[in-house]
Amino acid sequence: AQSVTQLGSHVSVSEGALVLLRCNYSSSVPPYLFWYVQYPNQGLQLLLKYTTGATLVKGINGFEAEFKKSETSFHLTKPSAHMSDAAEYFCAVSNQAGTALIFGKGTTLSVSS
Amino acid sequence: GAVVSQHPSRVICKSGTSVKIECRSLDFQATTMFWYRQFPKQSLMLMATSNEGSKATYEQGVEKDKFLINHASLTLSTLTVTSAHPEDSSFYICSAPDVSGDSHTGELFFGEGSRLTVL
What we know:
The complex is a heterodimer. Chain A is an all-beta fold. Helix content of chain A is 0%, strand content 51%. Chain A contains no helices and 12 strands. The relative contact order of chain A is 0.33. The model of chain A has no long low-confidence stretch (mean pLDDT 93). Chain B is mainly beta. Chain B is built from no helices and 11 strands. In chain B, strands 2, 4, 5, 6, 9, 10 and 11 form a 7-stranded mixed beta sheet that branches. The mean pLDDT of chain B is 92.
């Protein structure tokens, strides 16, 4: 069975500081990995995804994530936080295209000025 | 990217009534759609998989008689919460994969969500 663990339910950073949101997964087959962002009372927006190929994935809004098979991790980073990055972030996994995603519990990112 | 639209975005109903939520794929055909439920400050939990032309598949613990799913066409799935009670108040989100074309990335496209409040 697949699962996702997001370490830290709440992360606070200052504007301009590095953002690091942690995600570890469990999957018996090569996974498809995703990071989504959710603003209050809205649906989910895809930030980036890893399927195959390059392990460093660049997404929208300056975010990137690195797939590390040996560590079963897919941590999300951004070099410099912006106030507009404050939101809920979800890491998700699936083992096959077209199937449902399994989500982590989410991490709330707060950005202070 | 592919677009999924949900309606209504917000609904308030009285306890005991039924509420229907629609999920449409606007620019692609979706033989499968997924319905998730999200309680405040919590993650998305998969409720059921909606299959065009056949019965939905429900996750363990989800009452199929309470959450009726109909996937009547390749672009529309509906979730009906029957005899709603306050504990059914939640944020319901649908999603669909776009498996057309040569590249299937596994990405799901999400609707805007529907916030249900049962009084």
